[in-house]
Design goal:
Chain lengths: 270, 203
């Protein structure tokens, strides 16, 4: 009887141990499954990030191509044409060396055309690298841009700046300038706004810019819903430049005719 | 030894209590009162008085606090309603045990509690697997809590079911052996819970 009891106890302990062993294996299995899931999740995030980076790079390249096309068109249409006419004028003069009146007229015409070409070249150079921005910094550079836009009459821009004396790194200033240029361009093209108010200030944490307008706008949430492939080149270009300077951008709408964009450039990431 | 190890989760919990969620606070209360019950049971036993009443009352409080913990962890109104229903039903079972089997240990409430808490822990694991919150599973306090409850209550279930089986069939009193295994299970529980409490700081 005692032997039977001992055997029963041994069997029970064996069953119990086996049960606990299965439990331990289940926990190990859970750990393995968990790590696998985390790995899969990380891979998905990485793939999405890579895709996003690729799209941003494509957008940057596309913007560069558009810029090149624009410059080529300007050189070809304006400067090339004018220089061709000047060349024709010179050949006309060389064929008629004795016609002083014609020569004088052609020289006057050519001089005027050369002046136009110089203006055009200045314009292109300014477009490529705004001299005020390079020499005097973001505040002066962007104010100059707003003055030009206001003169064109496309839209009315009012601004209020409160910047510290220190200048931002050149790369940040240029990218910020391009972002502002693109944002204003988008507002003019898509929002049907008449008035844009810009306030910008810098403090110890960074640069804070708020651009509000009385047109139609999109919020960041609405932009998120647009598939990446369907987003405009301007929007992508803004995003890639924002990433380049580790800044953040927030699009918002406060109701009909009340929309804006907030840009934050933290100093610690510059 | 097992009684003393019961102080480990309490000490770690008190040190890290500022990092605790509401559910973890419920666990801290459980491990704060657990040594008191252990001590009371020990004193009663030393004086030759049955400590089964203390054991039954502790089982009820333990189940309620673990249920509170899981209702906070799951944080879903529908599941909380289910948990409340389970607790009410359990109180009925435990009340019956308390009135009828005051001096016996092979009660239905311990078995029920073990099965339900194991189900809670398995559900907790499935939630972790569904929504991984951290890259390293060992850094998640919930992992340690689920593991502690699963192992402890699975061990308890085995001990109680088979001890009552042996008692019924062989009329053999196995209190010594049962309490030996139970003490080991308790120490594992305390250490795992203490690890979970410790991990709340770095989650």
């Amino acid at each position: 009887m005692e032997n039977e009891n001992a055997l029963a106890i041994d069997t029970l302990i064996l069953i119990g141990s086996l049960g606990m062993l299965i439990l331990a294996f289940s926990i190990i299995l859970f750990v393995v499954l968990y790590q696998k899931k985390i790995l899969a999740q990380q891979n998905t995030i990485q793939a999405a990030e890579n895709k996003h980076q690729k799209e941003m790079l494509n957008a940057t390249l596309e913007v560069a191509e558009i810029e090149r096309e624009k410059i080529a068109k300007n050189i070809h249409d304006d400067i090339g044409t004018i220089l061709n006419v000047i060349k024709l004028n010179f050949s006309k003069m060389s064929r008629n060396p004795d016609d002083k009146m014609l020569s004088e007229q052609l020289i006057k015409e050519s001089m005027s055309m050369l002046d136009d070409s110089i203006q055009n070249i200045r314009g292109i150079a300014k477009d490529l690298m705004p001299p005020t921005l390079i020499k005097l910094g973001f505040e002066k550079g962007i104010s100059e841009l707003f003055r030009q836009i206001n003169t064109s009459g496309a839209i009315e821009i009012s601004h209020e700046f409160n910047f510290a004396d220190t200048r931002l790194p050149a790369k940040t200033e240029l990218q910020l300038y391009r972002i502002m240029q693109e944002v204003i361009n988008n507002i003019v093209k898509h929002s049907q706004a008449q008035q844009v108010n810009i306030s910008a200030r810098s403090d110890i944490s960074g640069v804070h810019i708020n651009i509000s307008h009385n047109g139609n706008g999109l919020s960041s949430e609405m932009i998120e819903l647009i598939p990446e492939a369907q987003r405009g080149i301007g929007l992508k270009s803004i995003q890639s430049r924002v990433q380049l300077i580790n800044a953040s951008i927030q699009y918002y709408t406060l109701g009909p005719g009340q929309a804006g964009i907030a840009i934050e450039v933290p100093f610690h990431d510059l | 030894m097992a009684m003393l190890s019961g102080l480990i989760p309490l000490v770690v919990g008190l040190i890290n209590r500022k990092y605790f969620t509401k559910g973890e606070k419920a666990l801290l209360y459980l491990f704060a009162i657990s040594p008191l019950f252990d001590l009371t049971g020990f004193i009663l036993k030393k004086n030759g008085i049955s400590n089964m009443l203390v054991f039954h009352i502790y089982t009820i409080i333990e189940f309620i606090l673990i249920s509170v913990f899981y209702s906070k962890v799951i944080s879903n109104p529908k599941i909380t309603l289910y948990i409340i229903t389970i607790v009410v039903l359990f109180l009925g079972v435990a009340g019956f045990d308390l009135l009828n089997k005051l001096t016996l240990m092979d009660d239905f409430s311990t078995t029920t509690e073990s099965i339900i808490v194991m189900l809670y822990a398995i559900f907790g694991y499935s939630l972790l697997l569904k929504n991984p919150i951290q890259s390293k599973v060992f850094a998640i306090p919930l992992f340690w809590f689920h593991t502690a409850f699963l192992l402890y209550f699975a061990g308890n279930l085995f001990v109680f079911i088979f001890s009552s089986y042996l008692q019924q069939h062989y009329k053999q009193n196995l209190f010594q052996e049962i309490w030996g295994i139970h003490s080991v299970m308790s120490m594992i529980l305390y250490l795992l819970i203490a690890t979970g409490f410790w991990k709340t700081k770095t989650r």
